[in-house]
Structure formats: structure tokens, C-alpha cells
């Protein structure tokens, strides 16, 4: 049965687990907001800065060091000195290919060679805005 699955934990251990979970949630939340700010920046949306600021707040709540946060901000594609930046074109193309594959029941592993060839429809639509 399920007897071995659950065990009693002390109040201190439960508090410790909850604190670690909270830090992981803040880290994930910050990461999602950071990536969103990158996409918003690439799409020319004015909300990218606010999203990046909130991401930094979440990273601070997660206990990230100021050095790590500084590197993250430096590597943001809005920084003119960023070498590579974020390649939204590649992400959009991959999403288009996966979507097309799901429509026709093609496994995504078989789609990888297509990622390099096809001009994505969604990217074309976004370029028209």
C-alpha cells in the first residue's frame, strides 16, 4: 500500500522543506519573467523593462547573489554589449515545427532536421505587425 510513501516530519523539517520550496518557486518565477522580458524586448513591447525588474525581485527573494543577478542583467538581450542575445527567430521556428508536428502526429525528434530549413509562419505573421 501507501504506508511507506508518507512519513511523519517534525515541525522544523516541514518549515525547512517549505522554505526550500518557496526559494525554488521564486527562482522558477524569476526565470519565467526573465525569459518573458527577453521575448517582449525582441517583439518591441514596452513592458519588457517592468518584467525584467520583477524578475530581479524574484531572484532576490530566491536568494540569488548580487553578482549572479548582475550577470543575468548584463546578458539580457537589451544590453547592447551582449554578444549573442536571444534568438527569438529560432524559438518561433521550433514552436511552429512542433505545432505542425503535433497536428500530423510526427514525433518532435523527427522534426529536428526541419528546424533548420523551414521559414516559420508565425515569425512571418509577427514580422507583419
TrEMBL record:
<protein>
    <submittedName>
        <fullName>Protein PHOX1</fullName>
    </submittedName>
</protein>
<dbReference type="InterPro" id="IPR044517">
    <property type="entry name" value="PHOX1-4"/>
</dbReference>
